[in-house]
Specification:
This is Site-specific integrase. With 450 residues, the chain is mainly α. It is 48% helix and 8% strand.
């Protein structure tokens, strides 16, 4: 090294040259103008990029495959900013991305956490999005979604098979029927779920308007429930008489319980001496989200509190049901003693090792009972309707039936059993006709004599 650390093969620095360089006028950098954001081509992928500035001062890039396209989107975005509208130009979020990355994993769970939405409702929304919305509309960009898309989607759903074709014949069938189409209720529910999702998208300023609001959902006609006759119920109870869950089926019918409400009864909520049961919980299967690593659902059984005050009630048990529960408790004690492991969860109706019953397995048990009884197309929920129908036929007041079934509004009870009310009205008209004939008999005699 030379003096001052310079390498010996380099000539000494010239102070004269340094002086001339310092005197050379500096060049001003080229500018694009005062934040005009005109398009430029990106070297990495050849895309054209233009820029607008939001009222906050933040830069907002928009993209195009050509200079003209990028500049057109820039002008559109600027107009939206000037009109105080959400900037949609250049936005590429699809409906699928919004539903699966924003609405289902972020927006709705926050509502569940705040107590504004039931976890089971979130589970139902997720299922509907996966089955009936994303496969049909998922690839459409949010900003491009139109009423034409929505109308075409509803028509597709109306023709969509409701599930896999059955492989087994039911009692009395000679051949398998064609696959059933989605019910009008399912189509209308899908419409409602998408409407709610896009309402939130508008609130998030992801879209300007909710196009689903501009398209009518199909009208759902409330059909009267499957009306079991007393002979059918007698056959069902006969087929279930030796079942280990005999008391469960009996309590469902006696109290008009829903499937999950019966599965959620705990011994601490039952007072056999007083003949009462306090309803607090419902056991349900939550489908959950799909695990990204395994591709399987993170489903689970949950015991959740009943959602309305009307549902949380202390019910009086018929003496026959009390006796059945005593017998069931003794059988459960024997199962506990015989089991190597017992999950003491305090539930009345359990598996043979004390765990909560899987609702789908309960459905299969009921299908076997129906097949043995020769009763077709009968759901567990039809026992609840049978409870209300039998009470009404026995002359029990509609207000009392509302209390038994724990409907929040009397109108719900009357809507479900409106067909029975019509029969009562017909009977009243016939009775009045007889009275009128009797009351006017003398007058008719005089008229015929004249």
């Amino acid at each position: 090294m030379g003096p001052g650390g310079a390498a010996p093969w380099l000539p000494p620095a010239s102070t004269e040259g340094r002086s001339r360089m310092s005197e050379k006028p500096s060049r001003k950098p080229r500018t694009r103008g005062n934040r005009d954001g005109r398009p430029y081509q990106r070297k990495s992928d050849g895309k054209w990029v233009a820029t607008v500035y939001l009222p906050s001062g933040k830069r907002k890039p928009v993209y195009g495959d050509s200079r003209t396209e990028a500049d057109s989107k820039r002008k559109q975005a600027q107009r939206e900013i000037d009109d105080n509208q959400p900037v949609t130009a250049g936005r590429t979020d699809t409906l699928e991305r919004y539903l699966t990355k924003v609405w289902l994993p972020v927006t709705l769970p926050q509502r569940v956490q705040a107590g504004k939405l039931a976890e089971s409702t979130l589970d139902s929304y997720r299922d509907t999005c996966e089955k009936h919305i994303v496969p049909h509309l998922g690839r459409v960009r949010l900003v491009d979604l139109s009423t034409t898309h929505i109308r075409a989607w509803l028509l597709e759903l109306a023709e969509k098979p409701s599930g896999r074709r059955r492989k087994k014949l039911r009692p009395g069938e000679k051949k398998l029927p064609p696959p059933e189409k989605l019910s009008t209720r399912t189509v209308a529910y899908s419409h409602a779920v998408l409407r709610k999702a896009l309402n939130d998208a508008v609130d998030d300023e992801s879209v300007k308007r909710n196009v689903v609001l501009l398209v009518d959902a199909p009208t759902v006609d409330r059909k009267p429930p499957r009306e079991l006759t007393k002979d059918e119920v007698r056959a069902l109870l006969g087929a279930a008489a030796d079942h280990r869950l005999w008391a469960y089926w009996l309590v469902l019918l006696a109290l008009g319980l829903r499937r999950g409400e019966g599965l959620g009864i705990r011994w601490e909520d039952v007072d056999l001496d007083a003949g009462t049961v306090h309803l607090r919980l419902s056991v349900q299967r939550m489908r959950g989200e799909v695990d990204e690593e395994t591709g399987r659902r993170k489903g689970k059984l949950v015991a959740k509190g009943l959602k309305t005050q009307a549902s949380k009630a202390t019910m009086k048990l018929p003496a026959f049901a009390v006796a059945a529960l005593r017998e069931h408790g003794a059988r459960q004690d024997d199962e506990r003693d015989a089991a190597r492991l017992w999950a003491d969860e305090g539930l009345v109706f359990t598996t043979t090792i004390g765990t909560a019953l899987e609702p789908r397995n309960v459905n299969r048990m009921w299908e076997d009972i129906c097949a043995a009884a020769g009763v077709v197309r009968c759901r567990i929920h039809d026992l609840r309707h049978a409870c209300g129908s039998f009470l009404f036929a026995d002359g029990v007041d509609l207000k009392v039936i509302q209390g038994v079934l724990r409907h929040t509004r009397l109108s719900t009870t009357s809507e479900i059993y409106v067909h029975l009310l019509e029969e009562v009205k017909d009977g009243a008209a016939d009775a009045m006709d007889g009275m009128l004939v009797d009351l006017t008999g003398e007058r008719e005699k005089r008229r015929s004599a004249s």
